Amino acid sequence: MKAGEALPPLEIPVTRTLIVAGAIASRDYQDVHHDAELARQKGSPDIFMNILTTNGLVGRYITDHFGPTAVLRKVAIRLGAPNYPGDTMVLTGTVLDVEIGDGGRTARVQVVGKNRIGSHVTGTVTVTVPAAEAGPAAGSPAVGSPA
Known about the structure:
The chain has 3 helices and 5 strands; from the N terminus they run βαααββββ. The protein is of the alpha+beta class. A 5-stranded antiparallel sheet has the order 1-3-4-5-2, with helices on one face. The longest helix has 16 residues, at about 50-65.
């Protein structure tokens, strides 16, 4: 983890199921996230992803890269172009800076998620990767070792 490091892109197919499931999971029952006809009546060409689903996908992108011990400290995002069914959102990230402390390394990562229309999400995520844990205590077997 170092400043300037680019995270590999993550392509996320935006399906109708993903949009509806994300809205239901986050208890966002706004009709524009599950009812195409009502979304059209309100001026949208189709249903679209809610911010809570986007927030979760951004968090997943960061923790997938930094590993299962990574702790999200702050997620600050802004939505732009809607994610509609049939889109593919491509998330990219760049490490802005890294701080080393007693609890591990903390990085600020700039994240952008684009679809066919433009930028769906932009923001900054602060993530901490804990310091490597010490090995097994002297005299005790390592995990997976025969006793």
